[in-house]
Amino acid sequence: MSTDPESGTSTTAGTNPTTIEAPEGTPFLDVTRDFDATPAQVFRAYTDPKLVARWLGPRDLEMDIEEYDARPGGRYRYVHHGGHLGELRAAFHGVFHTVEADRLIIQTFEFEGVPNEVALDICRFTEVDGRTRVTTRSVFPSMETREGALTSGMTHGIQDSMERLTELLASGV
C-alpha cells in the first residue's frame, strides 16, 4: 500500500487497486475498488450475511453476525474478535436506509466503542468495462470522528476487506 501525504490518498498494488481518499477539510472518506464480477455478484456479497462474514474486516479477525437484514429499514449488528484484538471485541451496528438491487446501498455505521458518532455510508455499484466498480462515500459527523476512525486502523481493515472480497468473488460465489 502507498499513501500520498498531501492528498490523503492510499492505494494497494495489484490488478484492481483499492483507492482510499480522505479529502482535506471534509468529513468524507471515499473508497473505490473495481472487481472482476458482475454488479449482481458484488451486490450479493454485500447483502448476504453468510458472504459478508467471509470478507468484511481485517483478515486476522473472526466475525459474528448477530443481525443483518439488508432491506430499507433493516438493521445490522456484527462483532469482530480474535486476532490482533486479543480478548477485545469490536461491535458495529446500523440501519439500511436504501437498498436498490445491484445499484445502491445507503446505511448508517456506528462503532460501539465510540457511541453516538454515526457515519452515513453511500455505496454504489456500477458496471465499468466489464467489471463492477464499487464507490463508497462515508460521511462522518465531524473531522475529528473521521480522523479518529483513520488512526484506529480503519484503512487497514478496508484494504484487507477489499482483498478478501476479491478472493471470495474469484471463488465463484
Question: What are the key terms here?
Answer:
173 residues; alpha+beta; 10-stranded antiparallel beta sheet; 10 strands; disordered N terminus
Number of H/I helices: 3
Described by the principal axes of the CA atoms, the overall outline is globular
Taking strands numbered 1, 2, ... along the chain, how are they ordered across the largest sheet?
1-2-3-4-10-9-8-7-6-5
Helix percentage: 25-40%
Number of strands: 10
Strand content: 35-45%
Radius of gyration: 15 Å
Averaged pLDDT, please?
A: 92
Report, as a whole number of angstroms, the end-to-end distance.
27 Å
What profile does the largest beta sheet have? 10 strands, antiparallel
Q: What structural category characterises the helix and strand content? A: alpha+beta
Uncertain ranges: 1-13
Q: How are helices and strands ordered from N to C?
A: EEEEHHEEEEEEH
